[in-house]
Design a protein that fits this description.
Blueprint (H helix, E strand, L loop, with lengths): L1 H18 L1 E4 L2 E4 L13 E6 L9 E4 L7 E3 L4 E8 L7 E8 L2 E6 L1 E4 L6 E2 L4 E5 L10 E7 L2 E2 L3 E2 L2 E2 L4 E6 L11 H5 L4 E8 L2 E8 L4 E8 L7 E9 L5 E7 L2 E8 L5 E7 L2 E4 L7
Antiparallel strand pairs: 1-2, 3-4, 3-16, 4-12, 5-11, 6-7, 6-10, 7-8, 8-12, 9-11, 12-13, 14-15, 17-18, 18-19, 19-22, 20-21, 20-23, 23-24
């Protein structure tokens, strides 16, 4: 079934990624968009989460020179709110409806550059960061919501840690692959490690509910054109499992139950390859 899906993906990845549809039997559900950091490609920001934040799962993006920085849509959608609360709460803020019940909010803006009903694409500038509303300093307040409930944020397939201050590098509108590692492995997986290759990145993911690891290699060059790519996973004491071939977007998913057993993982894009030592043992 995986190979059949990927054959379809090679022909119509753009349509599937844009729609975000996951089909199981006769039922159709909408998967979460592959939300990106809401700043320009390669911008490094600190994602701050803390107990007592309102709402609890909101993220404050911080950076010393953040005032006036362009704020980008973290996924495509339709602008559903453009409001100004004055010197309290969100201050100037924007909400984008991404379909399927998913929305994102961007608050404390110094400028709003879109209007309600406007369609926006991933990476489109919607405003500028600032310090409006009830704040003590400039930052971007950011939320991911599902049917009005604020979710723990996931950015480019990487779960934001709660609670702490974590550095994130934006891959928003850098061009390239429409697939994220969680889209390849499944929404119950979270990225726990990664290694950059020339032409892509290999990811190790873990599903806490099942104790399974998954490896996926996501291409960043020759995207949409079939070329050599692989992903492999070995649970200590077992044989290595590999997915390799000429693929347009990714290799994997390669998944095995590991529990508290160490795993060796890796992958390749062309001649660039990586294999980890045995690690992630508990």
């Amino acid at each position: 079934m995986r190979m059949s899906f990927r054959s379809v993906a090679l022909a119509a990845a753009g349509v599937v990624a844009a729609a975000g549809l996951v089909v199981a039997g006769a039922t159709e559900a909408v998967a979460a968009p592959n939300f990106q950091v809401p700043f320009a490609c390669n911008t490094v920001v600190t994602a701050a989460t803390f107990s007592g934040h309102s709402p609890a799962n909101a993220v404050d993006f911080q950076r010393s020179d953040i005032t006036g920085m362009p704020v980008l849509a973290s996924a495509g959608g339709t602008v559903s709110r453009v409001a100004n609360e004055g010197d309290v709460s969100y201050g100037r803020w924007i909400e984008i409806n991404h379909g399927g019940g998913y929305t994102t909010r961007y608050a404390h803006l110094s400028a709003q550059q879109v209007s309600v009903g406007q369609s926006v694409s991933l990476g489109q500038q919607i405003g500028k960061a600032g310090a409006t509303g009830g704040v003590t300093g400039p930052h971007l307040h950011y939320e991911q919501r599902l049917n009005g409930t604020v979710l723990k944020a996931v950015l480019d397939g990487r779960a934001v840690p709660y609670y702490g201050h974590t550095s994130f590098t934006s891959h928003n509108k850098c061009g390239g692959n429409p697939y994220s590692p969680t889209e390849v492995c499944g929404s119950d997986y979270s990225v726990i490690d990664s290694h950059a290759l020339t032409g892509g990145t290999v990811y190790l993911l873990y599903a806490a509910g099942t104790g399974r690891n998954c490896v996926a290699t996501i291409k960043s060059t020759s995207v949409g054109t079939a070329s050599a790519v692989s992903a492999h996973l070995q649970v200590e004491g077992s044989t290595q499992v590999t997915d390799s071939g000429s693929f347009a977007y990714y290799a994997g998913p390669v998944s095995r139950a590991a529990g508290s057993t160490c795993v060796k993982w890796g992958g390749s894009v062309g001649s660039s390859a990586y294999t980890s030592p045995y690690e992630h043992c508990g």
